Amino acid sequence: ASQYNPAEIEPKWQQCWLETNADTASEDPNRPKFYALSMFPYPSGNLHMGHVRNYVITDVMARWRKMQGYRVLHPMGWDAFGLPAENAAIDRGSHPAQWTEQNIQQMKKQLQQLGLSLDWSREVATCSPDYYKWTQWLFLQFFQAGLAYQKESAVNWDPIDQTVLANEQVDGEGKSWRSGAKVERKLLKQWFFKITEYAEELLNDLEQLPGWPDRVKLMQANWIGKSVGAYLEFPVTGRDDKIGVFTTRPDTVYGVTYVVLAPEHPLTPKVTTAAQKEAVEAFIQEVSNESELERTAEDKPKRGIPTGGKALNPFTGEEIPILIADYVLYEYGTGAVMGVPAHDERDFQFATQNQLPIQQVIVPEGEKPSEKLEKAYTESGIMINSGQFDGMNSVEGKEAIIQYAEKQGWGKARVQYRLRDWLISRQRYWGAPIPIIHCPSCGAVPVPDEDLPVELPEDVEFTGRGGSPLTQLESWLNVPCPSCGEPAQRETDTMDTFIDSSWYFLRYTDANNPKEAFNKEKVNDWMPVDQYVGGIEHAILHLLYSRFFTKVLRDRGLLNCDEPFKRLLTQGMVQGMTYKNPNTGKYIPSEEVNPDDPKDPNTGEPLSVFYEKMSKSKYNGVDPLEVLEKYGADTARMFILFKAPPEKDLEWDSADVEGQFRFLNKVWRLVTDFIHHHSVTENPSELSKEEKDLRRAIHTAIQSISEDLEGDYQFNTAVSELMKLNNALSEAKCKTSPVYQEGIEALVKLLAPFAPHLTEELWHALGNEDSVHQQNWLEPDPEALTVDEINLVIQIKGKTRGTIAVPANASREELETYARESDIAQRYLDGKEVKKVIVVPGKLVNFVV
Ligand code: ANZ
Ligand code: ZN
């Protein structure tokens, strides 16, 4: 028999599947649908192992569901707008479109080498005008719904990339996620999407998602950040203004000893006295360059100064000072807080530093107020020093204070979300232009539908300075106003690429429609996505934005579903063996290290060896192409699936890759041996014990593998079951029995979603003309699973003396008789008096003597 040669069979079948459109989604209305989706890649140029793992996982699901009789939609595309293309243009002078297109072609070829059952007829690239025409059209849907608006706002400005960054693109140290530059604050007119209008639904509907990891749902809930409390007003002494605050602890309002405004608050200059003016202005200047994170860092001293102004606490009738401080954020709540140092840690710290009075109004149940508080008491308790509310439990006090405030006209109940509106403007070229024309008389006018797409002009220069090249291209910029015809100017901002990826899964359902973003029937037919697979790094933003889009489009009548992704799997990371010099902190490439005695080649110091997420800077990456070349796609797939459950991290291990290659070779030999050497004899009327045992092994494999896939996609245990089945077949004696043939065919079919090329080749070698991937998934035969004999353990005084084979359905009495009459019992009992017999059906009989 010939050798297993993946280099020969893999390209052959890939070509065949492509030519026969084997993976085009069926639209047969009689089949249930299954929409399997991988997060689409950014076309950086090369696939990495993380991509490979992601797509292989989704592919097994797609192939398996198809065998189960589903019509499967399994598409792929490119998240193709974004900074790297533009940076490459600046560095190398290549146009972003060209750079992107080249990368797409290269990565597409690599994807095809993996044997993924993708429907390429639905391929999308977000940078193509056929796609972004609809991104722009959707923007206008938001605009018409009042969900897209412009606002002057302090933004995160990246001084290197010369662009605005979303809050999420600024890391914990206030640096740009991409350029690493220290982010500055700058005032600019920006476009926003009103995601806050959907905050409540985005939070509540997480409950509709039992198929999502709890961790992801928690991250989303925290991001939305719902707080329940009150809005209370403090009149400014000597003015008509009132300072409104948001508080989660209205029950502490009698303990308010000052109020604090964010320095940027519009009331700041109004309440500031002449004596404090200079100091206040200097302070505002200082704070303006601090990032939000710096301002709120817990371990940092809270800085602030008095404005000289005073306000009235309407509850106590006391006059209290108004201060400004950096820890109060203008963008959250009302941008002002009531200071309760006795019961809030930040306020305690601030009051202590600034010699502000501390007034206790809550004590733990059964305790007296302390002489001097050492730290803030932040729990609930009994209200004191609180007028008519004294003695009340503070939990009930919250409600009572809100009611009282409402009656007096001092405030009301309020729910506050941490979520902010989504800043979508980017001062960049390589994105979808925002389809708006600014007219001096009409304001922001939408580009009429028939003029979409607003195409990116090609004749621009990429200098890397001064923001977007679009602002410099007069011929593109100047257009007549669509409404009044007078000279007007195009919006030069492009959209955040997260917008492109917030609806690509909808476009796949009708990817080639030139007239609509997607047809309503088609989108409703395929949506929601049944299984989404991707990295945990998208747990918050991409998923939240996609959920938001889905809800807005539902409310616009464009589709029916509430949630886009029914089930979500966040696959674990692929980690590589990493060598690091613990003294210098330097990572050492593995080629330079002797694995048996890892030492720094430069200094001779011993290295630490561990697994870490693969990355270029750590020299611990494994290039997928090298693995494909050496072993083929099927081995790479098998290793990835076998090595760890999909949601867990995976440690790359070449010995285990080798192991999977050997396993596939065994399958190859087993099946080709069968084809060449064993002709199957007539069907016997009754199966021998051999045959029955083998049949049980076959159907146990069918049952276990189906369960592994059906439950939580436990591919690793499914592969173990496949190995067991392979062993059972190679050890079987009845190689000319029809049962053996059944087993060989079952092995090929069960292995098909995992190793699609090898199984296709073997399936054809077995004499079949159709594809193994079009076969029906197997059902276990309950009759084959029944065991007709079990091994019964015989014990004397609890000590195991041996086992005997007995019918599986024997009764207690029969079991006892079989045991008594067995040679083992005869030998050990040897006439002794049996005091008691313990029978555990299915397991053992114990004689107590
Ligand atoms: C008085 C008070 C007393 C507060 C107390 C807490 C404990 P979350 O849960 O995050 O919503 N706060 C309100 N707006 C703020 C802003 N713009 N910048 C900084 N802090 C702000 O927290 C709400 C609490 O954070 C509010 O309740 C307010 O302090 C503060 F014993 O009011 B609290
Ligand atoms: Zn006009």
UniProtKB/TrEMBL annotation:
Q: Give the EC number.
A: 6.1.1.4
| InterPro entries reported for this sequence | aa-tRNA-synth_I_CS, aa-tRNA-synth_Ia, Leu-tRNA-ligase, Leu_tRNA-synth_edit, M/V/L/I-tRNA-synth_anticd-bd, Methionyl/Leucyl_tRNA_Synth, Rossmann-like_a/b/a_fold, tRNAsynth_Ia_anticodon-bd
Q: Which PROSITE patterns match?
A: AA_TRNA_LIGASE_I
The record's Pfam families line, in alphabetical order, gives: Anticodon_1, tRNA-synt_1, tRNA-synt_1_2, tRNA-synt_1g
Species of origin: Euhalothece natronophila Z-M001
The UniProt family comment states: Belongs to the class-I aminoacyl-tRNA synthetase family.
Q: Where is this region: Disordered?
A: 290-310, 580-604
Outline the extent of the Methionyl/Valyl/Leucyl/Isoleucyl-tRNA synthetase anticodon-binding domain: 692-811
Residues the entry annotates as binding ATP: K616
Q: Where is the Methionyl/Leucyl tRNA synthetase domain?
A: 39-173
Main localization of the protein? cytoplasm
Q: Which domain of life is it from?
A: Bacteria
Localization recorded for this chain is: Cytoplasm
Output the Gene Ontology terms for molecular function: aminoacyl-tRNA deacylase activity; ATP binding; leucine-tRNA ligase activity
Reaction catalysed by this chain? tRNA(Leu) + L-leucine + ATP = L-leucyl-tRNA(Leu) + AMP + diphosphate
Q: What is this protein called?
A: Leucine--tRNA ligase
Q: Give the Aminoacyl-tRNA synthetase class Ia domain ranges.
A: 419-575, 613-653
Cellular component terms per the entry's GO annotation:
cytosol
State whether keyword Hydrolase applies: no
Location of the motif 'HIGH' region: 41-51
Q: Where is the composition biased (Basic and acidic residues)?
A: 292-302
Q: Which HAMAP family match?
A: Leu_tRNA_synth_B
Record motif 'KMSKS' region, residues: 613-617
Could you list this entry's UniProt keywords, alphabetically sorted. Answer: Aminoacyl-tRNA synthetase, ATP-binding, Cytoplasm, Ligase, Nucleotide-binding, Protein biosynthesis
Biological process per Gene Ontology, one example term? leucyl-tRNA aminoacylation
